[in-house]
Write a structure and sequence with these properties.
Blueprint lengths: L2 H35 L2 H26 L2 H31 L1
Helix pairs in contact: 1-2, 1-3, 2-3
Amino acid sequence: MSTPTNVAKQAVHDKIESQVKTVQAKLDTLKARAESAKADAELKSIADLLIKKQAIDRKLNELKKSSETAYQQARADIESRVAELKKSVQAIEIKFKAA
């Protein structure tokens, strides 16, 4: 594999990893707010999202090791999962803002 390809893959990996870390920080904040508000439904939702985030972390590690042919499919899958996770976090944030 060529160096430019490695650099491009690393840039994509770093971008996705940054997005995941941002989502993790939001989830941590929401979890603390839900715990202080005794919001059990939101705590359950946040716990479910944390599990999805862990799955994304595993997929992201696999992405680094994937072959060139599997890379694009794995990347699309991860990006889709991250987008879905972000939407779910935003939905919980909206619930808290409305409360």
